[in-house]
Design goal:
Helix content is 67%, strand content 0%. The protein has one domain. The chain is globular and about 55 Å long. α2 runs parallel beside α16, α3 runs antiparallel to α6 and α15 runs antiparallel to α16. By secondary structure, the chain is mainly α. The termini are far apart.
Length: 332
Amino acid sequence: MTSDLNTGTEAKPPPREAGVRPGRRPGARLSSYLRPARLGMVDYYLSVAVVLSLLPTSRQGLDGASLLTSAAFLLGEVCLVAAAVAFDDATGHRDGSDAVTYGPDAPARALAGKPLPAGTLTETAAIRFAGCALVAGALCWAAALFWAPHRPLWAVLALVATAVVVPQYSWGLRLSHRGFQEVFLAVVGWAFVLPLFGLLSGKAGGLAAVEAFLFGLGPLLFGVYSNTHDAEADRAAGRPTVACLLSPRGNRLFIGALSVVETTVIVTAPLLGLAPWWFPLAFVPLKATRARQFTVGMVRGDILRGRLLGIRAHRLLVVTLVAVNLLVAGSA
């Protein structure tokens, strides 16, 4: 290679790529920018699968407009979540909470998904990425509204509100720093199901409302384990999560209560005529996983293992919801 030859002239240092730390390979730039997006964490994005499986239960077909709307919604969802996470990374870098959680004194998680503490991306670049992702997400959702077969006012307003609120997690209004962290995790999940269902079907059915509620509880029921693990750093950064505000016993009771709420909704739905009689039976594997999650994470104290089981439980929930919807549609 010519760059390895001694030409007798002073070698000039390679130009630094904006936003990427010196010493990084040029090919690493894209991956450094994409890491804040957490594209491997698909749990919110599974909402589209739930919605598409719900359509036959409301006697709605899946035409070209519905597919275009769903695709644009999914892309917008990915972009908005990426913006929120990147803003959160920048905030965690500024207030020092990530240095505590991901520093040498707390090596419980790999730095691969945290480019700012790892030094592979600058704060300015992360904020620039977040801003671009936010604009892209808004444009995608505008396209979804344009292609949508139906535009009920409540669905349009919910979509606009979600696009405004999601980036405010730890930037702008900084909702997670004002005591709304747990509520935020659940509400975002609900908002990724019901508005899209309204755009595709023109209504919000009882079964759709139940499934949106259960879907939103999924990220919350593994997010509270992350909060338990990060309680010390969140407390130092002034982020008042339940794990920070309550005693360890109180936090365990809160997490157990969330699982009880999930069970109550599953059992009550058929009694209210919102789901078939066999609806609770379909969720027996999920509740067994929840019990194991609580035992491992809260009783045995393996918090991160409990979080992992919570992620698996949420994905099992999605599979269960899709299967239930297909069975309901098939028996209609």
